[in-house]
Task: inverse folding
């Protein structure tokens, strides 16, 4: 089995109620084997059960670190893309209230292929990258959308060296397919962007090659 992010060898790692996981020898990411993935129809139904009310203060508070990071780096003159925004694009809602302009894209709820022919100063992925079936392809596309000096802002929970995968809550979502180690983040940064990156808890920031 090859890793869908870095194409290194991956070995059996864990078998749980959602299926079998392998872990990469190279980037140390772990992933659910493709035969256990939901169909597109079942995946959409699963997302439709999420309670993503943009007016929910708890939901707003959860994404606030990402909102703050965007506002620290960019002004209202810059263009952004909320990628994988879902039914309730709370980050776009909060930033637009501050005068920012963002386009929306989601493969189920905001299908707008025109975003792939544009360039952006920043791209936002809030709890999105762990859903990627083909993370290598997805990140290659995302970096190609950046203007020089652009950034990709992500929220996710990383797989650490001391993570007890058996009891780790994050794997229990059947739509969570790939779990990133810090070495995975370094691989993405070096492969597609500037080698520098920033991790602060759940917040991850990638830089364009021109940064």
Result:
């Amino acid at each position: 089995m090859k890793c869908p992010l870095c194409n290194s060898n991956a070995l059996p790692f864990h078998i749980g109620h959602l299926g079998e996981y392998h872990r990469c020898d190279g980037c140390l990411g772990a992933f659910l084997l493709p035969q256990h993935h939901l169909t597109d129809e079942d995946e959409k139904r699963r997302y439709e059960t999420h309670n993503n009310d943009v007016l929910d203060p708890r939901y707003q508070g959860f994404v606030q670190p990402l909102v703050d990071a965007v506002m620290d780096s960019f002004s209202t003159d810059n263009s952004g893309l909320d990628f994988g925004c879902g039914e309730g694009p709370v980050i776009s809602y909060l930033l637009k209230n501050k005068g920012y302009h963002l386009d929306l894209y989601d493969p189920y709820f905001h299908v707008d292929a025109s975003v792939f022919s544009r360039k952006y100063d920043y791209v936002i992925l809030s709890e999105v990258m762990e859903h990627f079936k083909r993370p290598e392809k997805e990140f290659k596309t995302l970096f190609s959308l950046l203007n020089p000096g652009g950034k990709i802002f992500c929220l996710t929970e990383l797989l650490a060296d001391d993570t007890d995968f058996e009891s780790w809550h994050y794997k229990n979502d059947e739509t969570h397919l790939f779990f990133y180690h810090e070495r995975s983040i370094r691989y993405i940064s070096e492969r597609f962007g500037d080698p520098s990156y920033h991790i602060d808890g759940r917040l991850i920031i990638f830089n364009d090659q021109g940064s």
Notes: The longest helix spans residues 57-73. The chain has a mean pLDDT of 94. Strands lie at 10-16, 19-24, 30-32, 79-83, 101-105, 120-126, 146-155, 178-179, 197-200, 203-207. DSSP finds five helices and ten strands in the chain.
